[in-house]
Structure formats: structure tokens, C-alpha cells
Design goal:
Elements (H helix, E strand, L loop, with lengths): L6 H6 L25 H18 L5 H12 L9 H13 L20 H13 L9 H11 L9 H24 L1
Helix pairs in contact: 2-4, 5-7, 6-7
Length: 181
């Protein structure tokens, strides 16, 4: 759960006037069958995190690093995991940035999980408080129970839909319990 930032940081990183929207995901660039490695995705997420900070109006490096430390516990994007980078980009999005974290790569075979589905599963896992993204042990256990697979990349489209539905239901039930408690 991200901690609230001090008022001074909120003012220093107030949303800026963004004139050009940033494309979501990979911007529609065709990569053919070339798979994006985790390192390539991480590099892209680091660039997106910096751009998102700028779009949110946080141009001072000290302020940006302070917000990063508050959101992820780390002041440098290079030290962050993929899940932490996604969480940071989502935070900047709440402050007005138009850039969104690129979705993980999906299998190329027909009938397999799509990038959108993987991104949705990753977002739901983060919203459940599972900070290691698609590799989180709690998500992997949920995938084993729900779809009988050991990793999200092995999901079929149909199984991914079941996982998304299940995670969404679980999240709603949790929210109801917290409201009534």
C-alpha cells in the first residue's frame, strides 16, 4: 500500500500541462515475433517512469527521487523491480501523467493469454497487495488453484479470463469486508 506523500512533495510534483499524450504500452510499434526480455521491459519501464514524473509536473530530480522513495522505498529506478516500477508509474498516473506501464509480453501462439490480460492480472495482483507482480508467490498459488498452471505466461485466453474474474471477485469481497469492519 503506497504511503501518502508530504504536502511539500504534492505541491512540488503538481500535475503539469501536458500537450502531447503518450501512447499506452509499446505505442503500437510492431516487433514481429521478437520477444521482449525482462531486461528490455525493465529498461522501457524506467524510461516510462521518468517520463510519467515529468508529465505529472515533477521536474526536480530531488523531488522525483523523494516521491520514488515514498512509493517504492527506493530512490533510484535502477534499484527497483518490475513490479515497483509499475507501481511507481501508476502513482504518477494518479497525479496526472498520461503514460502507462507497458504490458508484459504474451505468448505468440493463438489461443494463449494476451498482453492486455497479463497487464490486467498484474494490476489486480498489485491491487491485492502482492508486490512481486506476475512472479508473486500468492499469485502463482492462485494460478495453480484456478487455472492449474505454474506461471501466468502459460495461461490460455479462457483461463486468463477466469483468473481475472476470480481476482476481481476476491478484491470486491475484500473491499466489502474492510467496509463492514
Amino acid at each position: 500500500m503506497p504511503r501518502a506523500e508530504p504536502d511539500s512533495l504534492r505541491r512540488a510534483c503538481a500535475p503539469a500541462d501536458v500537450t502531447q499524450p503518450m501512447p499506452i504500452g509499446d505505442g503500437g510499434h510492431a516487433r514481429g515475433h521478437e520477444e521482449m526480455t525482462m531486461d528490455a521491459r525493465r529498461r522501457r519501464l524506467i524510461a516510462q517512469a521518468h517520463l510519467a514524473a515529468k508529465q505529472a509536473g515533477c521536474v526536480d530530480e530531488e523531488d522525483r527521487r523523494a516521491v520514488q522513495r515514498i512509493v517504492t522505498g527506493k530512490s533510484s529506478c535502477l534499484d527497483m523491480t518490475v513490479a515497483e516500477l509499475v507501481r511507481l508509474i501508476d502513482h504518477w498516473g494518479k497525479l496526472g501523467a498520461q503514460v502507462r506501464a507497458s504490458a508484459p509480453e504474451a505468448a505468440q501462439a493463438p489461443g494463449m493469454v494476451t498482453r492486455w490480460q497479463l497487464a490486467t492480472i498484474e494490476r489486480l495482483a498489485w491491487e491485492m497487495g502482492w508486490d512481486d507482480g506476475l512472479e508473486d508467490a500468492r499469485l502463482v498459488a492462485f494460478l495453480r488453484r484456478t487455472a492449474r498452471v505454474d506461471a501466468a505466461r502459460w495461461l490460455t485466453r479462457e483461463a486468463a479470463s477466469s483468473v481475472i474474474s476470480g481476482l476481481s471477485r476476491w478484491k470486491r469481497q475484500r473491499a466489502k469486508r474492510e467496509v463492514s469492519a
